[in-house]
Design goal:
five-stranded antiparallel β-sheet; elongated; seven-stranded mixed β-sheet; BirA Bifunctional Protein, domain 2; alpha+beta; SH3 type barrels; 28% strand
Length: 320
Amino acid sequence: MSPSGESSIDAALLERLLAATGPMTLEALGRALDCAPMEAARRVETLRQAGCRIDAHPQQGMTLIETGLGCWADYLQARHAGRLGRRIVVYRSTTSTQDRARQELARADSPQAAHGTVVLADEQTAGRGRLGRSWLTRAGGALLMTVVVDAGETAADRLVLASACAVAQAVEQLVGLHARLRWPNDVLLGEAKLAGTLLETAERCALIGVGINVSDCPDLPDHPATCLAERSAAVDRLRLADVLLDQLDRALFDEDDDELHEQWRQRSSLLQRRVTVTSGDRTLTGRVLDVDVEHGLMLAVEDGPHIVLPAATTSLMRMH
């Protein structure tokens, strides 16, 4: 399937409409973009052709209802040149953004050339989470993305922690709701799961998958789910993707281990909690002491030692 997003759109106009707190007249748009109202109208029509839903009121002006997939690539690439998001591929429907990102990496000349590529989809037919669990939402109901990162020697646990923190920070920045982290990869609002991340590797690259429930609450077998719409936090998926890429860039490359550690501690739903986990072929119960940014969860095992459990081989079974 060919990616969508071939249309050339006015990123500055789309940013004005995304950031607007109310309708904007063509005259106001023209002043903001330094063009005539008729030219502003022409540019608005280009956004409509790219799939944007824009309400037009004769007196009050233009209101962006929802961005269209056809403008996502142009908008994000214009705003993230040289960083994560410098190349955007958008699919209306695909098996999994992880699968497509793996294909993008295979076609690239090198891991460095693939670095910063982002795959987004409106719908996944075979989305997955950790340990092969399925992640299915209705078309248009979630932000679904995978980011290709040339990770070099970065520890896998640091990538997992940074990704979860970035999702929490993006949600808090946009909608003002306090997000919590359930190690290793879940982002919660209250006790309900809002988002999850998935780390896979290929060659020397990390494929960081993110799924955030925006307007759909999927049925999860092991945990209640929520979405932003259910919390009266309406946000366009394109704006969420834009902010999330900024936060991922910062968490992965700018924040040091101490800063990431503090970000986790401020949001952890497990700190000092009694939990039962599986790690390899072991089932362990103990108290969560802390997290080691590069090595995993620090657990005081009941009637046993203090141990560190890596995210790749450890799963939370229950909190007591």
